[in-house]
Write a structure and sequence with these properties.
This protein is an all-alpha fold. Helices cover 60% and strands 2% of the residues. It has a four-stranded mixed beta sheet. Helix 1 packs antiparallel against helix 3 and helix 1 packs antiparallel against helix 9. The two termini are 39 Å apart.
């Protein structure tokens, strides 16, 4: 089943609306239940001491109803806001709560090295920053998850059981499934679900607390403490309401997430063109003694985030995942229903680790020459193909080992970025190196000088992939180190008093992605739902692209006109140079990032038309297009058609 990135972004946003509606209905039911409980309790306290008749006046007191409503909303809303605030740190917070350990990019462990290699290849293939990887060492079940508000703060978590039991093709299928959640906007929905449902669970926690306090104070044991019985009943009632809230919460999770799991399975097959990988992983879950079980106490609240069913339940009605057999049959209709026999957890499986590298990828030629071209660029956004994955695997074989090793640790990653920004002209380069010698962290300057020789011989098409590989190591910096790194980045870019295309693209991609780790997380709020609403920033963006690809003013005007005509907007002309520099482009892209997904699709389509108007695409133009696309939250895979040199 083919998927469309922009449509799925719309579906995910509608899913958020659906979640809010379901959550509101659940809260309404809880409010009514609490009102009934308080009314019954007050009626009991206000009963006639002689006849025992209930005082119905007290029961129907509107002040009581208002108090119950406001109190419930305060508790549920406060609990949800508190949890959402806890989760503002993004995927890292979820991974640590689930017992995950950040995998060091420079690890020599073969299991971890293979896992990182698969994640990096998928990130390069999809045009996203490489997410940090967390290993759940205590978990022997076969499972994984993706968590975060947006690709910029996403993480991938994998259980030790999955990393050691699955072969490379199966692991690739699982990681492709998780990348589908990242690209289709499911993570944002999942993490909001955790926050909203926590408020419902707080009601049950309060009831449980009242019950415990009643027993400790003797209310549940003493025959003479009849006055405490209503309090005990209230606590039991609130606990029951909390149980009901948990019931509704699980129903909401199941309703929201089940279909998204089918979509992620389908997308994984679409990405890899190798259904045997993800199908094999699901079959191993069925034959494994611990299945996909996750024992961490925080697993139930994050159960909807996992690749497989992480917790047991009373009924399939509450399951956040479709039945395992149904998932397998959708991928492999010829499956005979049997599961493989696997060793006990911890025994290992001979030959499952395999060598690191690209050898495990199937479904396309390694070079990717016959793969998608720039003409398919819009359809490729958020939808990498097997050709992209094969290209990413082959790229690792071509990258200098020293540069890859440097990209995997914080000191080397900073030096690598600095080396990529060193000017070819001797004058500006001398100024840049002098600044780094004075301002860079100890050892980084020396590493930059060493790496600069290798970077100078680097194929230009390898520059952005190296940046994407380096991002997890850069995100491991402390806030102080990040601020110094950011300042040095700006100094290096401005050393020659001009900003070229690669410098702008690198700076834009790098700082945007790192902002998700060190600053505000989450997607931009949709403010513009039509092309007319973004007419001005769109004109700026297309004018910049037209000037970049065409030195002749007439050719630039032609490229702009070709792109603008396809938008069905009131006619306008190419802006002057003074109105569309890189600063103006930054502001335009910030505004376009607030557009609805289907509007963004038209924006990317127009950008592609503008760049290809002269029937040639340079390396710089390809990098610029990917930077523009990433800036409006539309990750574009590598353009596999060899661009012409400038």
């Amino acid at each position: 089943m083919a998927t469309d990135f922009f449509q799925q972004q719309d579906v995910a946003r509608r899913g958020t609306t659906r979640l809010v509606v379901l959550f509101s209905l659940a809260v309404l039911a809880i409010v009514v239940s609490v009102e009934v409980l308080l009314a019954a309790t007050m009626g009991y306290f206000g009963r006639d001491p002689d006849t025992g008749a209930i005082d119905w006046t007290a029961v129907g007191d509107p002040r009581l109803l208002i108090l119950a409503t406001l109190g419930t909303l305060l508790v549920v809303g406060g609990g949800s806001l508190y949890r959402v605030a806890q989760l503002r740190g993004g995927g890292r917070v979820v991974a640590e709560e689930l017992g995950g350990r950040l995998v060091d990019g420079s690890t020599s462990d073969p299991v971890e090295r293979r896992l990182l290699n698969v994640v990096e290849e998928m990130a390069i293939a999809s045009g996203t920053s490489t997410p940090p990887v967390y290993m759940m060492d205590a978990e022997t079940g076969i499972n994984a998850f993706a968590a975060g508000f947006a690709p910029q703060d996403a993480v991938i978590g994998v259980t030790r059981g999955a990393a050691t039991t699955l072969d490379r093709d199966e692991l690739q299928g699982v990681i492709a499934h998780e990348f589908s959640h990242i690209l289709n906007g499911d993570m944002r929905l999942n993490i909001r679900l955790m926050g909203l449902l926590h408020g419902i669970f707080v009601i049950g926690m309060i009831g449980y607390f009242i019950l415990r306090m009643s027993f400790y104070t003797g209310g549940g044991r003493s025959r003479d403490s009849k006055g405490a019985m209503p309090i005990l009943a209230l606590g039991a009632g609130l606990a029951f309401v909390g149980f009901a809230g948990t019931f509704f919460g699980n129903l909401i999770k199941a309703a929201v997430s089940r279909q998204r799991e089918f979509l992620a399975d389908s997308s994984a097959v679409q990405f890899t063109r190798h259904p045997g990988g993800i199908a094999g992983a699901l079959k191993k879950i069925g034959g494994f003694v611990t299945g996909s079980q996750v024992d961490n106490p925080n697993a139930p609240q994050a159960s909807h985030m996992f690749f497989g069913r992480a917790t047991s339940g009373f009924s399939a009605m509450f399951s956040t995942h479709p039945p395992l057999k149904e998932r397998i049959r959708r991928i492999d209709p010829s499956w005979d229903g049997g599961f493989p026999e696997l060793p006990e957890p911890g025994e290992g499986a001979p030959g499952t680790v395999g060598p690191p590298g690209a050898a495990g990828f199937a479904g396309a030629e390694a070079g990717g020459a016959a793969g998608p071209t720039l003409a398919d660029a819009v359809g490729q956004v958020g939808q990498p193909t097997s050709a992209h994955i094969a290209y990413a695997g082959a790229l690792f074989d071509r990258l200098p080992e020293a540069l890859v090793a440097a990209a995997h640790e914080p000191y080397g990653a900073r030096a690598l970025i600095y080396a990529l920004l060193l000017d070819r002209d001797e004058g500006p380069r001398r100024l840049q190196l002098a600044h780094l010698e004075a301002a860079a962290d100890d050892g980084v300057y020396e590493e930059t000088v060493k790496l600069a020789r290798l970077v100078g011989r680097l194929d230009p098409t390898m520059r952005l992939p190296l940046v994407e590989i380096a991002l997890p190591a850069l995100c491991a910096l402390t806030p102080w180190q990040y601020e110094l790194f950011r300042k040095n980045l700006v100094e290096l870019v401005e050393a020659d008093e001009m900003l070229d295309l690669f410098e702008w693209s690198l700076q834009r991609i790098l700082l945007r992605d790192m902002q998700g780790r060190f600053g505000r997380s989450g997607p931009e709020r949709v403010r513009h739902r039509s092309l007319r609403a973004v007419r001005s920033p769109l004109a700026v963006m297309l004018s910049v692209l037209a000037y970049v690809g065409n030195r002749d003013p007439g050719a630039a005007a032609h490229a702009f006109g070709e792109a603008w005509r396809g938008l069905a907007l009131p006619e306008t002309g190419l802006l002057g140079h003074e109105d569309c520099g890189f600063g103006a482009l930054d502001e335009a892209l910030a505004e376009l990032d607030h557009a609805a997904p289907m509007v963004k699709k038209r924006v990317v389509e127009a950008a592609v038309v503008c760049i290809t108007a002269d029937r040639q695409v340079t390396v710089e133009e390809a990098e610029l297009l990917r930077a523009v696309s990433a800036s409006i939250s539309c990750p574009m895979p590598p353009i596999l058609t060899p661009p012409e040199s400038t």
